[in-house]
């Protein structure tokens, strides 16, 4: 409160009188000691643009200039963009020597001579790789000289626990990834797939995969008990990697083969989904929320019966496996500790013929060249090639001369 009749005055806003200012006119002059005249560049030094461009704000112990790490970062930057932009074209990746921590074991000596485990330096000459791809592709079909029916490759039982199983898978397209291979469109997606499938890198084992591997033997035993109620003489044989001489670049590793004079021979495929670990597959809708039901591989038809969705990766896997094994029936088992579903799947020839043609083309242009270019382990995008067609005549002079000269 201000006293009545008084007004508050802010002296800070009042102008200063001449006598109130600091005396500056009687001060001593500034000393004049001029130095040596310098060049303009000495007064205005150039900025160290290189140092700024390569500056790493991290502590020294965290700084890493490993070429693979840089290549992976650049690859992630490219793949994280929904649309391509001009700046991504400036991201140049460098390659360095790459070596396997664990040597790849190729059981076939012919392939072992062609595939080189260690590779360094610039990419191989494209024309040389084309010749190697043709020889590789031709030799793969030599199995026709010795087998005309489906065969199981030696020492491949045990699947994930067997090193030979991995070595045979890496040179082929397997049934379990058939749908994934057909869906590979971008170069980045192809690179990530080949790193994992062909070279065994970036491995990841989810809880669902662990649960499935642990539950499969139990599910197989329960399936055998159910089958023997209809045919006491029925047997189920566990299998390794199987190929068909007509298209040896494709393979499958079935969970089992049923041999029965009553029911007929058929393929066995077992799935143990972790989302139904505590539920009953016969009533899967009760245990899944809406999004899970939408993504689940089973559905109910208009009659209320369970069916396998034809868009599911498991449908692709089953159709390809039956084609390789020359079977027309498959028992598809979905198991949990609270119940089991057994569906009979018929072979669909029209579905398979279209998928077979595409899978063989992808294997030829993408898989085979990658064995020789070896780009994806170094985070380089794969290179696809078109090379001379496979010759049905195994006495073809072109191939025989190259085989004898290169081996």
Automatic annotation (TrEMBL):
This is Alkaline nuclease. PANTHER family: EXONUCLEASE, PHAGE-TYPE/RECB, C-TERMINAL DOMAIN-CONTAINING PROTEIN (PTHR46609), YQAJ VIRAL RECOMBINASE DOMAIN-CONTAINING PROTEIN (PTHR46609:SF8). Pfam families: YqaJ (PF09588). Signal peptide: none annotated. Transmembrane segments: none annotated. GO terms for biological process: DNA repair. It comes from Frankliniella fusca. Residues 165-324 form the YqaJ viral recombinase domain.
């Amino acid at each position: 409160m201000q006293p009545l009749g008084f007004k508050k005055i802010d002296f800070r806003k009042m102008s200063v009188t001449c006598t109130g200012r600091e005396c500056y006119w009687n001060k001593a002059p500034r000393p004049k000691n001029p130095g040596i005249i310098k060049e303009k560049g000495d007064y205005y030094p150039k900025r160290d643009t290189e140092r700024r461009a390569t500056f790493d704000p991290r502590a020294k112990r965290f700084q890493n200039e490993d070429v693979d790490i840089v290549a992976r970062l650049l690859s992630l930057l490219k793949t994280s963009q929904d649309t391509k932009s001009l700046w991504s074209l400036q991201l140049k990746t460098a390659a360095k020597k790459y070596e396997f921590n664990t040597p790849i074991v190729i059981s076939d000596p012919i392939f072992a001579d062609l595939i080189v485990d260690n590779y360094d330096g610039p990419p191989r000459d494209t024309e040389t790789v084309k010749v190697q791809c043709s020889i590789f592709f031709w030799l793969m079909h030599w199995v026709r000289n010795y087998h005309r029916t489906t065969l199981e490759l030696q020492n491949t039982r045990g699947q994930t626990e067997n090193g030979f199983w991995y070595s045979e898978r890496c040179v082929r397209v397997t049934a379990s990834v058939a749908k994934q291979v057909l869906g590979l469109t971008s170069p980045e997606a192809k690179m990530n797939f080949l790193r994992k499938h062909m070279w065994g890198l970036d491995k990841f084992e989810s809880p669902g995969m662990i649960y499935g591997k642990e539950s499969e033997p139990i599910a197989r035993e329960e399936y055998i008990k159910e089958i023997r109620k209809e045919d006491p003489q029925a047997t189920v044989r566990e299998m390794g990697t199987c190929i068909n001489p007509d298209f040896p670049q494709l393979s499958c590793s079935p969970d089992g083969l049923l041999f029965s004079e009553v029911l007929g021979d058929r393929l066995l495929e077992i799935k143990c989904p972790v989302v139904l670990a505590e539920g009953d597959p016969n009533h899967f809708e009760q245990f899944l929320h809406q999004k899970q039901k939408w993504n689940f591989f089973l559905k109910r038809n208009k009659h209320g019966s369970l069916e396998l969705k034809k868009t599911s990766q498991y449908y692709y896997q089953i159709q390809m496996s039956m084609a390789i094994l020359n079977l027309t029936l498959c028992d598809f088992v979905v198991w949990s500790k609270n119940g089991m579903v057994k569906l009979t799947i018929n072979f669909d020839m029209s579905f398979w013929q279209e998928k077979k043609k595409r899978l063989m083309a992808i294997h030829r242009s993408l898989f085979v060249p990658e064995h020789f270019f070896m780009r994806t382990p170094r985070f380089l995008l794969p290179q696809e090639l078109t090379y001379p067609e496979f010759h049905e005549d195994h006495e073809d002079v072109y191939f025989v001369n190259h085989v004898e000269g290169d081996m």
